[in-house]
Please model this.
Amino acid sequence: MIDANEEIRLGTVLILKKGHPCGENKWEITSFGVICKIKCLGCGRTVIIDRVDLKKKIKKVVKQDETTSK
Ligand SMILES: [Zn+2]
Model:
């Protein structure tokens, strides 16, 4: 489990340890709180997931927009 508190925010793209059945395993965060929503970039389906659970599943954080970071 990686500590991704700093990395995760709206619009962040994540690669999870386990991909979606559609074959994609990149996910964009569309809602972030205690409960998060992530959208599969392969098929566009949204999945609701507990933040603690989500963090356990993250393999890699893909930073997309550098413009709003520190
Ligand atoms: Zn999918």
